[in-house]
Design brief:
Blueprint: H1 3-31, E1 38-40, E2 43-44, E3 47-51, E4 61-67, E5 70-78, E6 84-88, E7 101-104, E8 107-110, E9 116-118, E10 138-140, E11 143-147, H2 148-152
Parallel strand pairs: 1-4
Antiparallel strand pairs: 2-3, 3-11, 4-5, 5-6, 7-8, 8-9, 10-11
Protein name: Membrane iron-sulfur containing protein FtrD-like domain-containing protein
InterPro entries: FtrD-like
Organism: Geobacter sulfurreducens (strain ATCC 51573 / DSM 12127 / PCA)
């Protein structure tokens, strides 16, 4: 082999190795808690408890609950008015697209139709349409508590 060809092959090998390391690092990072969109919901005595301290910054936290081989996705958020809300990461209109919502300040925006919904209005009014499908939640002992039975009702969206 010529010296130039060996150098080119070594250069390509280094580039390929670097690409593999970058992909492996990204996969690892997104599988660690807090790095991907969803965190696995921890169930204790039939309920998921989310520390209110985790929601103080007003940023929506996304969770998933596995039930019967299906992941049910939901989020919890502290709204600008100080209330705590929980809803499925899906709506009755766009759920088949499996895109869910993204937060934009005090609003959740449907990633399919781009409609915005105020976080402090989640669960109020008749619901339906593209609104985030609310999940009943209560505050207890410094946590936002959501019954697993209520999470199961959202299985139809996923």
């Amino acid at each position: 082999m010529q010296t130039g060809t060996v150098k080119q092959m070594m250069k390509l090998g280094v580039i390929a190795l670097a690409a593999v390391l970058v992909v492996a690092g990204a996969v690892t990072a997104f599988s660690l808690p807090g790095f991907g969109k969803f965190e696995k919901a921890k169930v204790v005595k039939g309920a998921v408890s989310i520390p209110l301290a985790d929601l103080q910054d007003g940023k929506a936290r996304f969770y998933r609950h596995s039930e019967g081989g299906r992941d049910i996705a939901f989020f919890a958020v502290k709204a600008p008015n100080g209330s705590y809300r929980a809803a499925f990461d899906a709506c009755e209109v766009c759920f088949q697209e499996k895109k869910g919502y993204v937060q934009d300040g005090g609003f959740m925006t449907c990633r399919q139709c781009n409609k915005k919904f105020a976080t402090d209005r989640i669960g109020e009014g008749p619901g339906g349409g593209c609104n985030p499908a609310a999940i009943p939640a209560r505050q207890a002992g410094g946590n936002l508590v959501i019954n697993v039975a209520d999470i199961r009702t959202g299985a139809r969206f996923f």
